[in-house]
Design brief:
The protein has about 270 residues and is of the alpha+beta class. The chain is built from 8 helices and 9 strands. The longest helix has 22 residues.
Length: about 270
């Protein structure tokens, strides 16, 4: 069961160069600073510093159906990043007034290089920041979810965000205005097939140092993705299923059966 959320009112945004729409620095009234990662939403990558970031940006472009924009990969990337910048600017605008952070201080690291905590942000007008970004077409309903400060269950949260995404897509808001609807199904299929192929490649060649173990209760998303057969979606499900009392509890995660557990057993620990 997820830890209970703690509410911290009257927080302020600390504007930084490295922030984006769904990950940013805040300061509490007591002067404590935290880097927040929003639950359940994913803005387009704005800062691409390595191959992992580049693959994620490509996946986002496929999700929104814009990889063929301008018949040029570079133009498609520029377009995607421009919407990443819009999402960042919208977050800065919406957080101009003091807001409330709802968090259980769960580790929200993605690539393992930065300390972040997952949180919901309640705006000064009572609106949820993640929901607002999805509704404006500046984020997709994707990522780690949980029960909310509004009393929604984890499943209800996912469905609510998915509905907002559908409405934004129908209205052609934000990045959805550039979607090639004819090509979108093929792009998403290509992305799924590539993720499966990458998982198989990791299973065969392995990326973990020999003898290394991954703690499934604390590992970042990208660290989990080094495991045999674990792609981004499955890594997110593992994070949502924490904490685990034993390795065998991984079979409670949707999509992980005894076969996958057998492949993982020598590479994971619970601490």
């Amino acid at each position: 069961m997820a830890a209970e959320l703690e509410s911290i009112p009257n927080c302020k945004l600390q504007v930084t160069d490295w922030a984006d729409g769904d990950s940013f620095l805040i300061e509490t009234p007591e002067g404590d600073s935290f880097t927040i990662r929003l639950y359940g939403v994913d803005c387009v990558e704005l800062h691409v510093g390595d191959a992992t970031d580049a693959r994620r940006l490509r996946s986002q472009r496929r999700y929104f159906g814009i990889t063929g924009f301008g018949d040029d990969t570079e133009k498609s990337i520029e377009l995607a990043k421009s919407f990443g910048q819009m999402a960042k600017e919208e977050t800065v605008r919406l957080l101009a007034k003091p807001f409330t952070v709802h968090t259980s201080f769960a580790d929200g690291r993605g690539d393992g290089k930065y300390k972040r905590i997952y949180a919901f942000i309640e705006l000064s007008n009572g609106e949820d920041l993640g929901s607002a970004l999805v509704a404006k077409g500046l984020a997709r309903a994707f990522g780690v979810s949980r029960s909310t400060y509004r009393g929604q269950s984890q499943g209800e949260m996912r469905e609510s965000l998915a509905d907002l995404e559908l409405q934004a897509a129908k209205r052609g808001l934000g990045i959805w205005a550039k979607t090639d609807w004819e090509k979108l199904p093929g792009e998403r299929r290509e992305d799924r097939e590539e993720e499966e192929a990458l998982a198989l490649a990791v299973d065969g060649g392995g990326k973990l140092p020999e003898g290394a173990k991954v703690n499934i209760n604390t590992a970042a998303r990208d660290e989990l993705m080094l495991l045999p057969g674990i792609g981004e979606v499955m890594a997110i499900r593992i994070i949502e299923g924490r904490p685990f009392k034993r390795v065998e509890d991984l079979t409670k995660v949707s999509g992980i059966g005894e076969g996958t557990l057998k492949k993982l057993r020598d590479s994971v620990v619970v601490e």
